[in-house]
Amino acid sequence: MKCPECNHENPDGALECSNCYLRFRSPLVLKGDAGTVGFNVRQSVSRPTLKRLCADDYRFATSNPQFVLDTDGTDWFVEPGTSTFATHINSTPLTIRTKLNDGDVLSIFVPSSSGPGEERAILSISIVGG
Fold this sequence. Notes:
Distance between the termini: 18 Å
Shape: globular
Number of strands: 10
Radius of gyration: 15 Å
Order of helices and strands: EEEHEEEEEEE
Strand order of the largest sheet: 2-1-10-9-6-7
CATH architecture: Sandwich
Helix content: under 10%
């Protein structure tokens, strides 16, 4: 994770920059079937991050942001990205900036091969510390 002040690369989940000692905002952790990723600053979530979270199901993700995580310094929010696949928060389609809470679940849906109008979840991500 890059420091927004000095651009120094810090480990995911760091609470402050090891170069300029800027304190980062409260961390947010996404947990998927294949791993965990922490965030301290605004972040677009697309294929590279989803690959770390959801094993083989990342292959359905595009290079366009699936969703964007943002913080106001106290709370964390999720915003829809520009991906063609739907993101749901707790089974509700994500259409506007929405506050995240500990235990919320983000799911990504792709069209199913079983017929038109059918969708299936390819991953679920639990929110910890939101």
